[in-house]
Amino acid sequence: MSSIALPGGNTAISRLAARVIALCWFLVLLDGLDLFVYGAVLPGVLDDKAFHLTKSMGGDIGSLTNFGMLLGALSAGLLTDRIGRRKILITGVIIFSIASAGAAAAPSVGAFALARFISGYGLGALLPTCIALVQEFAPAGRKAFAVTFLMTAHQAGGALAGALAMSVVHELGWRSVYWFGALPLLLVPVVWALLPESITYLLSSGRTEQADAQAAKYGVPLEFYTPEQGAQRRRGDVRALFASSVRQTTLLFWIASFFGLLLVYGMNTWLPTMMRGHGYNLGSAISFLLVINLGGIAGMLTAGPLADRFGPRPVAMIWFAMTAIGVSLLVLHMPLVVTYTVVFVTGGFLFSAQTLIYAATSSYYLPSVRATALGWVSSVGRWGSIFGPWFGGVLLSHGLTTSGFGMFAAAAVIALLMISFVRRNPEVDAINAAEARAAVTAQPA
């Protein structure tokens, strides 16, 4: 696990960060697999005449799943800074693994919808908590890269979902993929044993002895993880998101996240179906989901280093602009190889653009409320992830495939505009600068 390269700072700090990132990467992979498998197998579920699922109902279930994610992210935003990161992460894995088994065994559309809602709750709690944990362990100057690298797991999960759908749905049926999604439940004890709690959280919650013990165990300097002054008082306080220095920033990030997640989950839910509507067969339509997620991985690895160098905000603006252009091009019926190329490149911008919102959020709030800010940005944004699949289903049920692409391109433009109005937070800038100095001066144990 320590093979992940995170240059900059103390060797022990980088080694511990690599451990945390590797474990969280695996958890986010499972998150992405469980989430994106819905869109990957949806054409097969629609073709299952015995199950009686319509396109409109499919959009409703996609939105219901994302409503569960909204509630899960909201819970994480309220609880993570109070009870710790590790408990939230493990609980999320348990919930979505059990719910995946429920979806596989669902006797009716109603039971299937309930299972997807419960799964969404677990997924929603896991993702922002993983981002917060990775941010707290990542070396200074590599935090944006750590987040974008982490989110390659989400796209890898989406690509795996597409690969599973292409390889097993035809032979074993769509339910087999959901049974596969229940297997992570067996790995919970291993993850619990290997994943450390956030040292920053332990210090801010007054658990100094546990923080000392954990720092000694991994040979890291405790001062690197020391929270800002007054952290214990602010810990988990949602009112801190509306302090005068960040009030406007909070609202702008919320709106940007709404449209960013509308774009991400709308495209992942309906891309195979929209491409079928453009005349592609089922196999190639599903393969577009695989390709767009592979493009997402390449985009994450590119966006992270650029965001660490130039800041996540300006890079996010460029990424959303390129997403709008790429999605608009998909309206055209191009030669297959050209379409694959456009889908790949669009995926490279689309998914990392939303991830850069998370990276920017982390850099605009005090460490003691960072997880709360991420949870609420994710939670409010989930309204977009609910609206996108639902409205996409409405458009497609009326045969308006072209309008679906137009809606997603417009969402990218609006997110770009919201991010362009965000302004720096001097208080957080000072803390980030001090953190960078601590990383430079920290000596290996």
Structure description:
With 445 residues, the chain is an all-alpha fold. It is 79% helix and 0% strand. It has 17 helices and no strands. It has helices at 11-47, 55-83, 85-105, 109-137, 143-172, 175-180, 188-194, 199-204, 208-218, 231-234, 247-277, 282-310, 312-329, 336-364, 370-397, 401-420, 426-441. It starts with 10 loop residues before the first helix and ends with a helix. The relative contact order is 0.16. Mean pLDDT is 81; it is low at 1-9.
List the helices and strands and how they pair.
Layout: H1 11-47, H2 55-83, H3 85-105, H4 109-137, H5 143-172, H6 175-180, H7 188-194, H8 199-204, H9 208-218, H10 231-234, H11 247-277, H12 282-310, H13 312-329, H14 336-364, H15 370-397, H16 401-420, H17 426-441
Helix pairs in contact: 1-2, 1-3, 1-4, 1-5, 1-11, 2-3, 2-4, 2-15, 3-4, 4-5, 4-15, 5-12, 5-14, 11-12, 11-14, 11-15, 11-16, 12-13, 12-14, 13-14, 13-16, 14-15, 15-16
Kindly state the mean pLDDT as a whole number?
A: 81
Low-confidence stretches: 1-9
User: What overall form do the CA principal axes indicate?
Assistant: globular
Number of strands: 0
Helical segment count: 17
Rg calc? 21 Å
Q: Main sheet, how many strands, which sense, barrel? A: none
Roughly how many Å apart are the termini?
20 Å
Helical amount: over 70%
Please identify the structural class as seen in this structure: mainly alpha
Task: Kindly estimate the percentage of residues that lie in beta strands according to DSSP.
Answer: under 5%
- What is the subunit arrangement here? single chain
Strand/helix succession: HHHHHHHHHHHHHHHHH
